[in-house]
Design a protein that fits this description.
Strand content: 5-15%
Number of helices: 13
CATH topology: Undecaprenyl pyrophosphate synthetase
Order of helices and strands: EHHHHEHHEHHEHEHHHEEH
Radius of gyration: 22 Å
Oligomer: single chain
Number of domains: 1
C-alpha cells in the first residue's frame, strides 16, 4: 500500500505539537490553505454534573491565551484574503494539466471532518457540519465526472458511528433518508447515467432509510456508464465476515466437504461475495480532515490502492484539493507487488 500526500504522519505531529509559532504556521499559512484554515475553537463546554466539576481543576483561559487565539484567527483570515487570488490561478493551472494525467478508474473517499468543521466555525450543532458535508458531496461528484472517473465509493456512516449520541444518529438518519430520496429524481444522476449502490449492513438502518435506498437503487439499476457506491452502516471487517459467511453457505448447499472447501479456497473465491462485487478495486483513496488511517474502509479491496491524506475537513474540500490528489496519483508508479 502506498501513502500519498505532501507530508507524513510524523511530520504533521511534530509541526502540530511544536512551538506556538510552528502550530500557527501549520494551521494557517503558508503550510495551510486559505479555505481550510482550521480555527481551533470548540462548542461551549457541555453541562457537567457537580461531582465532575469539582473533580476538575479550574481551567479559565488566561488573557494571553485568548489574545494568542485571536491573533491566530486574524492571521488566518488575512492570509485568506491575500492568497485567494493566487489559489485561483493555481487551480486554473492544475486544471489545464489534468488532461495529461493518468486518471483513476475508481476513487474511494472517506468523508471525514464534518463535526470539526462545525466546531471551527462555531456552528450551533454538529448537524450543521453534516448538512454542509452532504452538500459538498454533490459538488465533488461533479468534479469527478469532469475528471472522467467512472466509479466513486464514498463512506458516509460506519457501524461504529451507531455508538454516537442517539440524537445525532437520529438526525443523521433523517438526513440520509432525504438525500437518498433526492437521488431518485436528481437530473445529474440520470443525465450522467450513474448507477447508485449502497454498501453495508443495510438491515441495521431504520425502515424509512431502507425504503429510500431501495428506491434509489431501483431507479438507477439499469445504468452502466458510471457507478456511485455509498457506504452506510459499513465496516470493512463486517464486509469480509459477511463475504466468507455467504461463500461457506453456498459451498455447503453444493454439498462440498470441509476438506474440499479448504483445498479450493482462494481470494478469487471470496470476491464475488463482497459488497463491491463486479466493481474494480479502488485505484486511489482520499481521506480528509488530517487523519492518517483507513479505519476499515474497503480493507479487502485497497491492497494495491494509492492513498492521499488531506488536512482539509470534508465540508471545506475544494476542487484544488482534488486536483492535487489526482496529480499525486499520476506521479505514482504502481507496481502491484512486482
Amino acid at each position: 500500500m502506498e501513502v500519498l500526500g505532501s507530508r507524513s504522519a510524523g511530520k504533521s505531529r511534530r509541526l502540530n505539537n511544536g512551538s506556538p509559532w510552528n502550530r500557527m504556521k501549520f494551521q494557517g499559512f503558508p503550510l495551510g490553505s486559505p479555505a481550510s484554515f482550521p480555527l481551533k475553537h470548540h462548542f461551549p463546554p457541555k453541562i457537567m454534573s457537580t461531582d465532575s466539576v469539582n473533580a476538575l481543576p479550574a481551567q479559565e483561559p488566561s488573557i494571553s491565551r485568548r489574545w494568542w487565539e485571536g491573533l491566530k484567527m486574524a492571521v488566518g483570515l488575512a492570509g485568506q484574503m491575500v492568497l485567494a487570488p493566487f489559489y485561483g490561478l493555481y487551480q486554473a493551472w492544475l486544471s489545464a494539466q489534468r488532461h495529461t494525467w493518468n486518471t483513476p478508474r475508481h476513487i474511494g473517499i472517506i468523508m471525514d471532518g464534518n463535526r470539526r468543521f462545525a466546531r471551527a466555525r462555531r456552528m450551533l450543532s454538529p448537524m450543521e457540519g453534516h448538512r454542509k458535508g452532504a452538500d459538498k458531496l454533490d459538488e465533488v461528484l461533479n468534479w469527478l465526472e469532469e475528471a472522467g472517473v467512472k466509479v466513486v465509493s464514498v463512506w458516509i456512516f460506519s457501524m461504529d458511528n451507531f455508538k454516537r449520541d442517539p440524537s445525532e444518529v437520529e438526525a443523521l438518519m433523517d438526513l440520509f433518508q432525504r438525500k437518498f430520496t433526492e437521488l431518485v429524481s436528481q437530473p445529474r444522476i440520470h443525465a450522467n447515467e450513474i448507477r447508485v449502490r449502497f454498501l453495508g449492513k443495510v438491515e441495521a438502518l431504520p425502515e424509512n432509510v431502507r425504503q429510500a435506498i431501495a428506491q434509489a437503487e431501483d431507479a438507477t439499476r439499469h445504468y452502466t456508464r458510471r457507478t456511485l457506491n455509498v457506504g452506510v452502516a459499513y465496516g470493512g471487517r463486517e464486509e469480509i465476515v459477511d463475504a466468507f459467511r455467504a461463500y461457506l453457505s453456498g459451498r455447503e448447499k453444493d454439498g462440498a466437504s470441509l476438506e474440499q472447501i479448504q483445498r479450493e479456497l482462494t481470494p478469487a473465491s471470496i470476491e464475488p461475495y463482497l459488497y463491491t462485487s463486479g466493481m474494480p478495486d479502488p485505484d486511489l483513496i482520499i481521506r480528509t480532515s488530517g487523519e492518517v488511517r483507513l479505519s476499515g474502509f474497503l480493507l479487502w479491496q485497497s491492497v494495491y490502492s494509492e492513498f492521499y491524506f488531506c488536512d482539509t475537513n470534508w465540508p471545506a474540500f475544494r476542487k484544488i484539493d482534488l486536483l492535487r490528489a489526482l496529480r499525486e496519483y499520476h506521479r505514482r508508479q504502481r507496481r502491484f507487488g512486482r
